[in-house]
Write a structure and sequence with these properties.
Elements lengths: L3 E6 L5 H8 L5 E7 L3 H11 L2 E2 L2 H5 L6 E4 L6 H10 L3 E4 L7 H14 L3 E3 L7 H11 L6 E9 L19 H5 L1 H12 L2 E9 L5 E2 L9 E2 L6 E8 L4 E7 L10 E5 L2 E5 L10 E4 L6 E2 L12 H11 L9 H20 L3 E2 L17
Parallel strand pairs: 1-2, 1-4, 2-3, 4-5, 5-6, 7-12
Antiparallel strand pairs: 7-13, 8-11, 8-17, 9-10, 11-12, 13-14, 14-15, 15-16
Helix pairs in contact: 4-5, 5-10, 8-10
């Protein structure tokens, strides 16, 4: 199989996780890195044994096949469009873009250039959620009729070294953590049809307590608590809360309730379990052994896209249409809250194919 050479733009906290993930696949190789902070790029280059270059130079290198876009959310669309214009395939961290307009531009540009766009999160390709997908496809819970999806925490200012962008446009709990939950739901239950929501910003100021910016005051630009409902095309209804305003909770991450049983889905921000099943008519939940590996890391979506390119497979799993559909769903929660009405999801996508379970694609 062809070895696909990766040019990574953005050398922040998440970049090391991707470097480890890329190292798991023989058909991926890190060629060079770039960052708006040259010292950050040089540090990663020394650690990985590749070259540090400037982003414009990275885009036009002959030894770069795919640009891995790990910049901050507000730069996602611009960097992806730059790479697409240079004829490169792109895999971007979530979200696809800050707005539906930007997202449409990226997807349309990739289609026009004949290149592929892939977008995180790829955690739904891990053993936990792939096991849940198999259980649903096998009819273990019957027809999905309802679901819940909860992410409740108190934000990033107590632990992240540079937490401000989590409260800027393109951040907040829905655009930061929502992609994990909404992507997992779409992969398990199919595309969405309607959205309704309420939002609020509980704390107008947040004080950073982590180093090196302890004492810095952040004023959120986006809502920090979302509560809403998703109606899927096949009729199932999901209640969802995504919040940075909650000190603690004991709610499940995701549960799916079917006509013949219930399914406890593991944290969609991880690749593993546990997976638990409650067959209809029984009282005790059963732990379900994983049918797929939980030893993968961020980068499996990139590896899947490269594999699809090598084998002329028409669709990789974390593709632009899925990413745009997730972006639209997330965007509509705030619009629904502002307008006080249900919102129709105009886009759709194919439910991603499950992984085969043998470690391949």
């Amino acid at each position: 199989m062809k070895v696909w050479r990766i040019g990574m733009v953005g050398c922040g906290t998440i970049s090391r996780t991707y470097v480890r993930g890329i190292g798991q696949y023989d058909h991926l190789d890190l060629a060079c890195v770039a960052d708006i902070l040259p010292e950050a790029a040089r540090r990663v280059a020394v650690e990985t044994g590749c070259q540090a270059v400037e982003a414009p130079a990275l885009m036009v290198r002959d030894d770069v096949d795919i640009v891995l876009n790990l910049t901050v959310p507000k730069a996602h669309a611009a960097v992806s469009l730059m790479a697409i214009a240079a004829g490169k395939h792109v895999f971007c961290e979530k979200p696809l873009a800050l707005s539906r307009t930007e997202g449409q531009q990226v997807v349309a540009a990739a289609r026009a250039q004949g290149v592929r766009i892939g977008v995180a999160p790829d955690t739904f390709l891990g053993g936990g959620i792939q096991t849940c997908r198999r259980l649903i496809d096998e009819g273990q819970i019957g027809e999905p009729v309802a679901a819940t999806a909860f992410m409740l925490g108190h934000g990033h200012e107590s632990w992240h070294p540079a937490p401000a962008f989590y409260y800027e446009t393109g951040g907040g709990p829905m655009f930061d953590m929502g992609p994990y939950y909404v992507t997992a739901l779409v992969s398990l239950m199919g595309p969405a049809a309607k959205v309704s929501g309420f939002t609020r910003t509980t704390f107008p100021e947040r004080t950073v307590t982590s180093q090196p910016l302890a004492g810095t005051v952040i004023r959120p630009e986006v809502p920090t608590h979302y509560a809403g409902t998703i109606q899927f095309e096949h009729g199932a209804i999901c209640s969802i809360i995504q919040s940075f305003d909650v000190w603690g909770a004991r709610l499940p991450r995701i549960e799916i309730y079917g006509s013949e049983g219930s399914l406890s889905v593991p944290d969609p921000n991880t690749f593993g379990g546990p997976v638990r099943l409650l067959p209809g008519g029984q009282r005790e939940w059963q732990d379900v052994p994983l049918t797929h590996s939980d030893q993968v890391q961020r980068g499996i979506g990139l590896a899947d896209m490269a594999h699809a390119l090598s084998h002329d497979r028409p669709e990789h799993r974390m593709n632009g249409e899925l990413a745009y559909h997730v972006l639209e769903i997330m965007d509509l929660f705030e619009i629904s809250s502002d307008q006080g009405r249900h919102m129709t999801v105009e886009s759709s996508c194919k439910r991603p194919r499950p992984l085969p379970g043998d470690g391949g694609f």
